[in-house]
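seq/struct pair 1
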Amino acid sequence: MFNGRFSLFNVSVWVLTVYLVFHVPLIEMRVDDFEQQALAQAREQPPVSTEKPEPINQHLKLGKCFHMPRSKCPAEPNCTKVGSMSVFCCDLDSARLKEALASSITQNTTYLHVLNATIDELDVSQAMFRRLTSMAFTDGNIDKIVVARKESMDMNTTRQFPKHSSVACLNISNNNLTSAKLQPAIQRPYAYLFNLSVLDASANNLTEFPLSLVHSNRKISVDLSGNRYLPCKNFMKAMEENNSSLVTFLKYRDTYCALDISFNWFKDVRVVQIDHLRIQKEVLNESCRNIKPANINCTCIPERLEFSGDVITNLVAVDCSQRNLTSLPTNLPHNTVKLNVSYNNITSLQTVADDSTYEHLRQLILDHNDIPYILELEGTKFIDNFMLFSIAYNKLKTIHTYVLSNRFYKTGLALLIAGNYINCDCNTEKTLKPWLLENFKNIPDYKLLLCDDKVPVVDLVESQVCHTPRDWTDYIYYIIGLEVLILVLLISKVSYDYWVFKTAGYLPWPANKMPRLPCDWLCE
């Protein structure tokens, strides 16, 4: 009986074991399925109360920093976290700014937007800003943006964003900022923003262009719309071929620049859309390719811009230096005002008189050529209107001063003649030397004009270069003086003999020894 019960127990155990083997995994798999479905639903439907900011990369692609609208401004306290990485603040002043940010920004905060902040001095070198990749202070009134001064060994001060800053997007738009409130351009305030790819400084009153960004050799999007008095020349620098692929102007059609117009005493400023600069640049490049001789690849850049009515005109500077030219180039771009043809083998200036494209020329640089004289410039428009004429280190043997004499009544003109070796003679000392000393203000290198023996023209001494004519002149004076003396003595002797004859009745020696002449009766 015992064995029967034991056998029944064994059978029951085996049946239970087989049941568990085949049914428990199925139950576990179903539980796992329910858990995975629940997790998937949780991912698909996040809690409504959790508001996550858009990824900063998406903002950067759109050319803007992390930005929240006014409708999302928090009540007291003035700062709130948006997700785990962003902080949004509104309506702060200098007294509450540091405290509010310190309580809101954590080590995980990388995006910051402060709306309508009234701040006397914003110090961007604070440690809390160092980890930010997007920093925006918008629609407020910032009196000054500074960097804490750090005395260095040479007692200089740094005026730049802190080193190793992570800022990739900087938005300081609509803060009534002027260039004086930012760091001076010469100190390159953005030099350490190596990661910066978007700069929004729109709707301010800036008058200086951040050229340090152009020189940084990295791609960057810049919004400068609403700053109507930024110099056009800086935009032209940014639009050069080397920089145009690096700098992208956001709100291109709404970006303007200030064009300085000056003519003698008259000065004015005209505001133009920067697309006009691009159009003028394309026209200039086309005309530059037409300079002859062909394929000398001269460089043409806008010297300055001026208005003629409502038309913007490029005044052009052409650089044809070091092109192995033997004559001046022709067919220059219209309104060429500056031409540099230094370091060539040019021997004649006749082209200036013959080519009509030289009629607007005001600056001509001819250094290090083979020009023997400037007589060909007589009567040309250039010689009547030039502001700079540099003909240093050529082969001038004489300078026809009358060609230039009528030009130095104006101030600001410059003639450079250093490094030429003149044939010096007495006429050089009598004419050229006084002319140089009279016009030394317009000839800054007048002391470097030399004679063939390397003596400066202004150091010529009359007795050394005019000795031969002076010797012959002295002899003639001596002869004339002797003749006058003999004549005086002769007249005196005749007068004395006549007086003696009248008073004493005889002629003194040697008059009494002289033979009688037919004219003696006149005296009797």
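seq/struct pair 2
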Amino acid sequence: MRGRLGALTLCLTLAMTTAACSGDDEDPTTLRVLAGPDLAVLEPLLDELRSETGVELEMDYQADADTGEALAAAGKDGGRHEAAWLSTDRSFQLRHKDAARGLLRTPTMLSPVVVGLRPDAARALHAKSPGDELSWADLADAAATGTVRFGMADPRQTGTGLAALVGVATAAAGTGGALREADVSCDRLRGFRSGQRITAASTRDLLDDFTDRPGTANALITYESDLLALNSGGRLKEKLEIVRPKDGTVLADFPLLLLDPDRRAAYDKVVAWLRQDSVQRKIMRTAQRRPVNPSVAREGPLRAPLGNALFFPDRPDVLERLLDDYGDPRRRVADQVVFLLDFSGSMRGARMAELRKAFADLSGADASATGAFARFYQGERLTVVRFGGHVLEERTVTVRGRRDLRTLADVVARGGYGDATAVWTALDHGYRTASAAVAAEPERSVSIVLMTDGENNAGIAYEEFVRRYEARSAGTRTAVHTYPVHFGEADAVALRRAAARTGGRMVDADARGSSLSEAFKEIRGCR
């Protein structure tokens, strides 16, 4: 009897040992995790997590994880991923609401998208805004003039780039709320984006390019944690000044998402461990990200206040329009705007003074936030056509500096008024100029702004303009839109009709609270 019991005990021991050593792909202590590249910095903590919780995270780093596309596909991959750990899931939540609905998510750390300035750029910006905190508007203004040349990850491919773009666009809208479709105005971001010199498909590649090509960019827009790591990592000759724009930032909370409800027990162990105060301190010191637990005191540079939190769009069409307008950072040609300006006799005096002020404001005289975002920018091609009873003058400049803006101001300041108003002749002339530009450079966006204070009383009739317009190439008709500015006694009905025919829209400079400056800022060159 005693011998049989001993043999049975030995068999059971051997069986248990064999099972323990055999391994199993379905080991319940392993979570297969789809991860964004920004989580790789936490690798040193994962062994400690496994030893203390019994759960091993099998990390699958994918460059596009934060865009939401890989995460949406994870729900259809037969359970290859059981959890996801991203810098942000906002794009996923917005674009794939059905897939996101009901997923358990736990924020694990925080980092805002901010700006790092090389010393030369910091000095230039502070000289223009002495004693003031810098804003996104200050940065957009400096980018438009070429003072700031920045690097930013591609917003179509990375969470950091998308958060940066949303932050800038939200600040430009100035509403204090989430972006609406009406807020996504292309003229507000064209000057800002003209300053972009470096882009990349991942944050890591962006940081490498920035450090490897020090003369290319003097600013970097990315997570606060990335900038702190650069400053402490010995890769820079001079440390960056970190600017947390006073008009707000978009905050990443690095959520851990449960994709497979059957793995809830393992998920709960992981998030409980990550949210411990002691682990939050380790994350803060390892990744230089802010703790999510308010009970954990922030250390060093992380003690700096965050300021306002900017909202993420709550509609996917707004996000898609924003990305579409920003375009491909690698393939970018500055726009051309053709301004058709009424110089008939009725524009003399106060009206001409208002027109000249509008151009001065677009050239940098307007110090407001909206003025900073809407100003003429480096590389932009501007054509001014003065007309009366016929075309009086045409001048084109490409903005490279103050001299070009002075040339533009001189054309608008010039006298020589006409004795009639040939609105449709001028618009037909504008389309000839635009057609030649489109034919020469199809990738360049060209648009027309028509400003008049009177009704057509010379030159061709509207019907003849339409006949000539319809005879133009499909490429011109598709690409070039007209944006009339109604002023004074202009025929609003006719201008709206022309805008509708050409795919643009009219703005009324005589509306309550408006002006020529406000009208030009609203629609100049907007597609």
